[in-house]
Structure formats: C-alpha cells, structure tokens
Specification:
The structure holds two protein chains of two kinds.
Chain A: H1 3-33, H2 40-51, H3 55-72, H4 74-83, H5 85-107, H6 113-142, H7 160-184, H8 187-218, H9 220-227, H10 232-251, H11 255-277, E1 280-282, E2 286-287, H12 295-324
Antiparallel strand pairs in A: 1-2
Helix pairs in contact in A: 1-2, 1-3, 1-6, 1-7, 1-11, 1-12, 3-4, 3-12, 5-6, 6-7, 7-8, 7-11, 8-9, 8-10, 9-11, 10-11
Chain B: H1 5-10, H2 19-60, H3 63-97, H4 99-132, H5 139-168, E1 174-176, E2 179-181, H6 185-189, H7 194-223, H8 228-262, H9 264-271, E3 277-278, E4 282-284, E5 287-289, E6 294-296, E7 299-301, H10 304-310, E8 316-317, H11 331-360, H12 367-376, H13 379-393, E9 398-400, E10 404-405, H14 406-409, H15 417-443
Antiparallel strand pairs in B: 1-2, 3-8, 4-7, 5-6, 9-10
The chains are: A mainly alpha, B mainly alpha.
C-alpha cells in the first residue's frame, strides 16, 4: 500500500459516502419533480423536511474529493478539469441552482407562485446534477479522454457509455432516496415511497444492464472488472444479493431493513466501479502513481485526513442522531 | 527561493492563448470571488452575532434577544447556503480555469485546503443542528453548536487565506526545471507574511458584516425609534463591527510593514511610489500615471510612507522604477482600490470610536448617529472587496508571485466567454433573490412576528 493507494481509497470512500448521503439528497429532488397522486403536496413536504438539516453537510463529501484530488494527484485534477470542462460546468450549475433554489423555497413565504417556480428549479437541477456526475464518472472510465499539452477535444465525453452511466446514477440516487423516504414517512405516504422505491429499483436494474452491455465495447476496463477479475463473481453475487434483499424487504414492508440493503447495494456499485478502474484515475493515460504529487504532501495529507476524521465522524453522528434517529436526541426543556 | 522573474518573462506561455480567453478566465474567477467573498465573510461573522443574541436570551430571558437570534439565524441560513454553493464553484474553477496553476501548486497549498474541508464539514453539520434543532436539542448543545459554527467559519477563512498568502509569498519548495521539487507542505502552509493577511481578513469579515447588520437595524430604528429589537440588534452588531473596525488600523499597519518587507512591488504599486527614495511621502488619493512615472493630484504627507511602512521617517522605499515594467501590477487600479479600502476603513474606525463614546455616556443613540450608521452599512463590504482587489491585482502578472504567471496558469479550453456569461447571469439572479429574500423575511417583518416560524420546520 503506497500513500497514493491509500489516498485513492480515501477518494473512493468519500465518493461512496457522497453517493449514499449527497446522492440521496439529489434523489429527493427527483421525487420532488415526480411528485404525483393525491399526496403530491405531502410528498414534497417530506422531501423538504428530510433533506433540510443535512444536505449542506452531505454536500461537503464532494468538496473533500476535489481537495484530495488536487492535493494528492494534481496532474489528474488538471487533466480532468480540461477534458471534462463542459460537463463539470454543467455539474456546477446544477449544484448551485439546486442548493440556492432549495434554500429560497424553504425560507420564502408559503403558497407563493415564486416559491413554486423555485421548487421547479430545485427539482430540475436535482436531475441535472446526478446525470452529469454519472457522465463524468463514465467518461473517466471510457478511455475516450486523452491528456494532451495543448488541450482536449471538448465533447469527447458525448458517447453512449458515459450517458448511460449518467442515467444509472440518477436512477440509483432516486432509488436510494425513495427507500430512505419510505422509512421517514408514515401511513399512506410511506406506501407512496415504497412503491417508488420498487419502481426505481427496477429502473436501476435496467440501467445497470444497459451500462454493463455498453461497457463491453466502450469501457473495456470496466467490462473486464465486471467479468474477468478474480473478485468479479463474488462482487456480483454480493451486489445482486443486496439488490434482491432490498426489493424483497420493500415488498414485505420492512422498510428499515430495506434501507440498509439498498445502501449496501449502492456502496457496492460504487466500490465495484473503483475496483475495476484501479489503478487508473483517468483511463488510459493517468494512474494513481503517475498522477501523484510529491510523496511528502501525500503523507502529510493522510495524517490531516486521519486527524480530521476523528472530529468529523462524531459530529456526523450527532447530526444524524438528532435528525434521523428513532427518537430525537433530547427533548426541549424550556421556552421554545 | 531564487527569483525566476527572467524565466517567467522569457519563456512563452505553454499554450498560445487568445487574449480574450485569458481575460474571460480572469473575469469569471474574479467575479466568482467577488460574489463568494461576501457570503464567506458573513459566514464568519453572522454565527457569532446569532450566538451572542442567543446567549443574551439564555442569560437574561429577554424575549427580544430570542427573536433576534432566530431572525439572524434565518439570515445566516440563507447566506450560508448561497456561500456553500458559490464556494463549491470556486473549488472547481481552480481546475477549470487554472489547471496549470493547480498542477503546479495543488500539492504545495493542498494542506490548508484539506483542513478547510473539515472546517467546512463542521460548519455545515452544526449549522444544521443549530437551525433545525430549536426544540430538538437541549439548550447547551444548541448554544455549543452555534459556537462551533462561529469558530469553524473563522477557521475556514483562516485556512483559505493561508493559501492566498502562499500565492503572494511562495515558500516551502524548490523550483527545478519549472516544476516544484522538495516540497515541504507544512512550511508552505505558513509562508512569510501569513499572519498579517489572516488577521486582516478575519477582522474585515467581522467589520463588514457587523456594519452591514448595524446599518439595517439603524434604518429600522430611524423608522420606528421605539423598537427594542432593533436597539438590542444595533448594540450587538456595533459591538462586533466596531471592535473590529478599531482593531483593523493596527492590523493594517502590521500588514503594510509586512508587505513592504516581502512584496516591495506591491507596496510601490499600492502607494503609487515610482522612484526609490528615502523619506518617501504618504500619498492620499491621487492618480498614478505609469507612463510618466509619477502620481499626480495626491495629498502628500512628507515622510509619511517611510514612517508607516518601516516605522522610520528616513527609511528607503523601493519604487516601481527598480523593477522591470513586465512585472508591474496595474498600478492605477491597485492604488485606487487601496485608497478606497483605507479611506472607508478610516471612516468606519472613526464612526466606531464615536459609537464607543456614546455608549460610555449611556445615552440613547442620536438620530444623526443612526443616520451615519445606516449610510455606512455597505461601506465595510466595499472596503473588503477593495482590499481583496488590492491583493489580487497587486500580485499581477503572477498567479504565484515570481514563479508562475497568470497567462501560464490558464486553461487551454476555448470559448470561455460562454461560461462567463452563464455564471454572471446566475450570480446576478442569486444576488437579487438573496437580497429580496433577506428584505422580505427579516428586515421588513415587524418585531416578534419572526419568532414563531423562524428556524425552519423543527
């Protein structure tokens, strides 16, 4: 294990957490857009209630990925920023509009036409951001992005495989969000999100199949990871088992357990991508080793990350205990 | 580290960039920071104000302070969210616009950025607990969460400013064949002159936010002189803003001496000093003319600059003429921005001193003073933006002083005008909406009305 490998692991772990937490917040926005039926209003309120206290903290995982990338692997950060300029600008627009519109909607006066428009900006950008994020990830694995001193082909990422990964990401995030929301909802509202979780679970399966098939021609490294490495089969079995378990638990109304299974499934999908791609950061030109900055920085960064984690995880525990625990952390004692 | 000015001048930029694209990159990055910096400064100071108000309420049971804490928390929530997403734009734009700079500097200045990431985590986590935790967490955890937000906001600014200090005075590496070698990240984290910049930036955040908040409440008091809420708010905001404004001149003096020592070109540009001379005068106002090599129409205080920059009236101040024209910053802009910053800072310090005297005499605020505070409301932010322009323009033509030029740092991606227009449109929209929302939700609502629905769905 070199420091570069460890840092690559940190980036992958942060991406897993970003998918499980920040991804689900985007998924909430997707369900805001797709709110329908007699409880459309309650669905939107639940989404707002669920992501309000946590989305900003969840968003920081992405910042951590960016920072570790440019500190530890500066060549990769520069090459990716040049080759994926267009989708990254779109991702930023999605992130900015989602966060700002969500806040404007939350704090504006209720029942306002302007507020409804912010709702649309919020939910629309909640679809845009995951799709573009998936496109970026797919493009990194596709081998279509080449590093050159004088720039890069600006639209090299426009191809079936990256676009299919974009769809896959959006489906995954929507699926996660629906399983989480099914836990937080009660009664008929819970049924709404349980049904949505099952439907999006099926969509996840279809998207996975599509991306997998396209990877055969367009992302050979991922395809090899999916099929031919020694760990391929056990990995598939585990991911598939989690997926089947999640759907089965959803069907039998055990939403809490289904949420855990869905989270394991999504984590395994992201880890599987990372393992297939290893040791490449940007296929085929940059590996973790060749994109590495000075070793002194990587070692110092690992220490900083370790120290930071000691403060971060207890803080996250407090946040989720207060807002997502079975019972509130403590009850109000006076005045408020 | 040896200066590599000659190398920077003679080697052509690695990409032959169309000038409009370099300009578009600079405009986009500059505007992104002009926009973000307001929210960043508010993120440092606003949590302190809201915690002070809540603390007063918990100590005294004064309902006015509870109303105030919730109102300010709501403002902090809106501004923090916009700050969080506009800060994300900056972290990506570092690579999107300046990939060569990041490929070179990423490993050297990555440490403060990484630590800033954790400070940002703490800020976001505990702001969530604070805003949505009224009634869900106990009083001590609630107040402590607010304190963590205030402290980690300051810590974020601290770390980010360290990275900027390194760009001004790079350290902690050797330059070999145009690449960084022998990188010592902890040395790079605290380059010469880090302390003055960090202190100046932190004080400016409290100053600008304190006076902006004071200005809003002074306006409300002019309309409704009996409002207990606004009187309490004005006291707290002036306490924070005024203390910072009185300390800032001391920090400014420290900064001037440090800049004179570490960045003589910048000092010469910001003072409009073209000739090297002993007993250099301090120029107030005036218009530098780089072609004529003189600053005209300035009010000159004999020996003032030597005295301020070196604490010695006969000290020698190096003028721009000592340096090749290619490494001059845009002298006129730098000098004028500096005059704006110092001028407004001085006025705000005077206003704070007057406020201190009034407070000591324990008399109600006279209307004239309220009017002055209301007018001065935006001045802190204007000074803060001007100061930021001074340090950034003052470093041109370099991204990393004497090591890497801005032209060498820019991306080879073409047609940067497109994202420039896109983001400017977004910033204008967000700026207008944020202002309207703050006005409608906080400034325009009558007292105590905010208390029952502030703080989000708790």
């Amino acid at each position: 294990m070199t420091p570069a490998d460890l840092l690559g692991g940190v980036i992958l772990a942060s991406l897993v957490l970003y998918a499980l937490l920040g991804g689900a917040d985007f998924g909430g926005g997707i369900w805001d857009l797709l709110a329908s039926g007699p409880r459309r209003r309650e669905q939107r309120e639940l989404v707002e209630h669920a992501i309000g206290p946590i989305w900003e903290a969840n968003h920081v995982w992405l910042i951590l990925v960016v920072v570790v990338l440019f500190t530890g692997f500066p060549a990769a950060f520069a090459a990716i920023s040049i080759a994926l300029f267009v989708p990254l600008v779109l991702l930023l627009l999605g992130i900015v509009l989602r966060g700002a519109a969500f806040t404007f909607r939350t704090y504006d006066v209720r029942e306002d036409r302007v507020q409804a428009r912010w709702g649309l900006v919020f939910s629309g950008s909640s679809v845009l951001a995951p799709v573009v994020l998936g496109v970026v990830v797919g493009a990194l694995s596709s081998g279509r992005l080449r590093v050159a001193a004088d720039g890069a082909e600006p639209f090299a990422w426009v191809a079936p495989f990256p676009l299919s990964v974009g769809l896959f990401a959006a489906a995954l995030f929507a699926y996660l969000a629906a399983t989480y929301l099914a836990v937080e909802a009660q009664g008929l509202l819970r049924e709404d999100f349980r049904h949505r979780a099952v439907a999006s679970g099926v969509a996840v399966f279809l998207c996975a199949a599509l991306s997998g098939a396209l990877s055969w021609r367009e992302a050979p490294l991922v395809f090899e990871g999916l099929t031919r490495r020694p760990w391929s089969v056990p990995f598939h079995v585990a991911t598939g088992a989690a997926a089947v378990a999640a759907l089965g638990l959803l069907a039998t109304r055990r939403v809490r357990a289904a949420r855990a299974a869905a989270a394991v499934q999504v984590a395994l999908v992201v880890l599987g991508w990372g393992a297939s791609q290893y040791p490449y950061v940007l296929v085929p030109d940059l590996t973790l080793a060749s994109a590495s900055g000075p070793r002194a920085t990587q070692v110092a960064l690992l220490w900083a990350l370790g120290g930071g984690a000691l403060l971060l995880f207890p803080s996250l525990y407090v946040l989720f205990r207060v807002f997502k625990g079975e019972r509130p952390f403590s009850v109000v004692d006076r005045g408020t | 580290m040896p200066p590599v000015r000659d190398q920077a001048r003679s080697s052509p930029p690695p990409y032959s960039r169309a000038v409009p694209d370099l300009l578009a990159a600079r405009w986009l990055f500059g505007l992104s920071l002009v926009f973000h910096i307001v929210f960043a400064a508010v993120g440092v100071a606003m949590p302190l104000l809201m915690v002070l108000a809540e603390w007063r309420w918990r100590r005294t049971g004064s309902a006015v302070h509870l109303d105030l804490a919730r109102r300010w928390a709501k403002g902090a929530a809106i501004l923090f969210a916009v700050g969080a997403v506009s800060g994300t734009v900056i972290s990506f734009e570092l690579g999107l616009l300046w990939p060569r700079f990041m490929a070179f500097a990423g490993p050297i200045i990555g440490m403060p950025f990484s630590l800033e990431g954790f400070a940002f985590f703490a800020e976001a986590i505990f702001l969530g607990v604070y805003l949505y935790g009224w009634g869900r967490v106990g009083p001590r955890l609630h107040l402590a969460s607010g304190l963590v937000v205030a402290a980690s906001g300051a810590l974020s600014a601290f770390f980010v400013t360290l990275a900027n200090a390194w760009m001004n005075v790079p350290a902690g590496f050797e330059l070999r064949d145009g690449a960084a070698a022998d990188v010592r990240p902890l040395v790079a984290m605290f380059p010469p002159g880090w302390a003055h910049e960090v202190i100046h930036v932190l004080l400016s955040s409290y100053l600008a936010t304190g006076f902006a908040v004071a200005g809003i409440h002074a306006l409300r008091l002019l309309r409704r002189p009996a409002s207990a809420l606004d009187r309490a708010a004005l006291r707290l905001a002036l306490l924070v803003g005024g203390a910072a404004a009185l300390l800032q001149p001391i920090s400014g003096d420290f900064s001037a001496r440090e800049v004179a020592r570490t960045q003589p070109v910048k000092l010469a540009a910001l003072e409009g000093q073209f000739r090297t001379e002993r007993g250099a005068p301090l120029r107030i106002g005036g218009l530098p003319d780089p072609d004529a090599g003189a600053t005209r129409f300035a009010l000159e205080i004999p020996r003032g600059l030597s005295l301020l920059a070196f604490h010695d009236p006969d000290a020698e101040v190096r003028g721009l003429a000592e340096f090749p024209r290619e490494v001059w910053p845009p002298v006129r802009r730098v000098h004028l921005a500096f005059q704006v910053m110092v001028g407004l800072g001085t006025l705000l310090a005077a206003l704070s001193a007057a406020g201190l005297l009034l407070a000591l005499r324990r008399r109600p605020w006279p209307r004239a003073y309220l009017r002055a505070v209301a007018i001065a409301g935006p001045a802190g932010f204007v000074a803060l933006e001007a100061g930021w322009l001074v340090t950034e323009w003052g470093r041109q033509p370099f991204t990393v002083r004497d090591v890497l030029t801005t032209a060498q740092s820019v991306t080879p991606v073409a047609r940067l005008g497109v994202p420039l227009v896109l983001f400017v449109a977004v910033y204008v929209l967000l700026g207008i909406v944020t202002a309207l929302l703050l006005y409608r939700q906080i400034a325009a609502t009558p007292d105590a009305a905010g208390a029952d629905r502030a703080g989000g769905p708790a």
